[in-house]
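Obj: model holo form, ligand = zinc ion.
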Amino acid sequence: MFRPVSIGILLCSLLSLASCKSKIQPVVAKPLVASFASALVVEEKVEAKPDTNLLTPEERKVVFLQKSGNHPYWRQEEAIHYDVRKPNYVIIHHTAQDSIGQTIKTFQIPRTKVSSHYVIGRNGEIIQMLNDYVRSWHAGVAKWGSIVDMNSCSIGIELDNNGREPFPEAQINSLMTVLDTLKSRYLIPTNNFIGHADIAPSRKNDPSVFFPWKKLAERGFGIWYDEGQLVAPPDSFNAIDALKIIGYDTSNLKAAIVAFKRKFVVRDTTPELTIYDKSVLYNIYKKY
Ligand SMILES: [Zn+2]
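Output (holo structure tokens):
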């Protein structure tokens, strides 16, 4: 059963959200607003012309919203209290590309099928490419704890960096600004600021060892161990269980260990846990 009124409200909400964004990022306001504005117009078009072959990909998304999510074989009544779902994780990436222009283009070419909500340049420029409330395609096949659809619950942030260079201070400062905004607006838990390699350790290595996770944790984004308070874990300590409890997918244990060490040990990313590595892991595990 179609629920055009509900969809209309949803799209209006998204449109007004996009408008709010325009106060912060006037540069991106136009495409965001245009995107949803055209969606609103399309709603009438769809009623008159149901042949989806004639619709643009964007118009098809509106048809999808109208058709899916409802189960017409069950009684349909409408509750009046709802809003849109909020992101609960932030995933940080490096682009592994050479320029911000290259990344923007990558996210606009139909065949690539990848995107992120934000791209941050080496000079600190912040570019919003998608509304926070829509599902960007940045995580790919990934798992964190029991969550297997990270795209549905997260915001993706790409840092313009080729993976072999440090992240400039201006870029990290801008990242902090974005993270501050997202954390306060969506009440994202401290531990839920993580990297792409955390959720896809077999496939990804971003952000690289140059990424300042400790600095982020000091500002309340992500977790760090208590330096100077490391102790050897007890004999009963199970390192694999600890990695799992933190969130790592240990089906490829070596990959999970490397991802953990790239982030917390940095100077050594071999796929074995030394006594020192275990003391770091034990310290972090106790925070969960
Ligand atoms: Zn990535």
